[in-house]
Amino acid sequence: MPRLSASLGSLGAALTRRDVLRIGLPALLAANPVRAAKPRGGFGRAKSVLVVFASGGQSQFETYDPKPDAPEEIRGAFGSIPTTVPGLRFCEHLPKLAKLAHRVSVVKSVMHDDLDHGSAVYLSLTGRFHPRKSSNPDPSPNDYPALGAVLKRVRPAARLPYTAIHVNGPLLVPLRPSPGLNGGFLGHGFEPYTVGDPTDDGELTGGLEQLSDVSAARFQGRQQLLGNLDGTRYPSTADHATMVRQAYDVLKSPQARSAFDLSRESAAVRDRYGRHRSGQACLLARRLVEVGVPWVTTFFNYTIRGQDQHPDETEAYGWDTHNDIFDAMKTHLLPRWDATFAVLLDDLHQRGLLDTTLVVGMGEFGRAPKVALEPRFAGASPGRKHWAGCYSVVMAGAGVTPGSVYGASDRIGAYPSDRPVTPADLTATMFYALGLDPGGHYADSTNRPSIISEGTPITGLWA
């Protein structure tokens, strides 16, 4: 029974497996609850967490951790530029983000050992290793729940119908939905609400409008009738009841409905974010944070790798750049990331939302130190293969020390040389910023307890 001693403190050392079976783990946890570490740093600073997920494995070398002094086969074809933080350099194709470096913290020492997209996405979005490490498994009802689903279980939004929303989803790896996106063993009722293509107005607002000829009394009557039918036609499950309640809550909440309506934004603002899926997804994410949604995950790319089928369509590109990495980065990936992510950070700052929003720009892993042609993949020029030994994540807001660097990679960017960080530590940090003890527990429908996060909050991000 892993982590029993860690969960139960000194009591766990005196218990046998037979004791646990006899007494019951839920009862033991209630009798000996996990004590939160003394809050410090950024504990509770965030009202919302906004994850911008760079699907496919964003290269650390071509973004936030270039190695200008390394040999060319490691350094790659791009140069580096200074940022607004002395000594910190970004890839030359991130000029807008370089001018905003004083607002972010770059974590250069994230590491794990899962080397395929599906299971690594699962790790990133649940904080847990998949039982089939380095694979592309299908989603399962036995999976651990997505982080937003956990938040809904331990602290559901009080004033809004949704605690967690996934934008520009579901994430495809590359053709089927990834594991780690749903409610897992918590059930469908805890799944984050998923918004598809944000450039499709019908996708965002279709079905959310109340009919003008339906009065409040008729609306309430229809709701009561549906409840009666549920009770007579089939047993109403908790999942179904939750989803029906959420649907009615949205219909009754003008604030919730209007948040999805991007037409309320000016043409200039929509143009600044970019009139493409990534840009409008980030704009929608800002609107959701603005109305108080506690957890928003935006998939910057809806697929990890669509360029094989559509090499001329930037919309289809993911960050899985095995070959042709420099053309893909320069032409398709970096311009959009630089422009849109910079606009998002600036917009949140200008609106006073960055102080209470933890923004996390991350992917499932990085890319390999050596540039090489991979014959098993499409493309005529070299790229970089999967690499989870060391990669970079950007954080901003919620009191995170701006203009800082946490951890470091070695001279060729292969492994951490200072303060390594795991995906579990990242998830613990997100919950910590929201004022939740990552070492606390939640229960599923059978009252089986699970720890919120197996990681340790990166309190060093806050001065």
From TrEMBL:
Superkingdom to which the source organism belongs: Bacteria
Classification via Pfam families: DUF1501 (PF07394)
Transmembrane feature ranges: none
Protein name (record): DUF1501 domain-containing protein
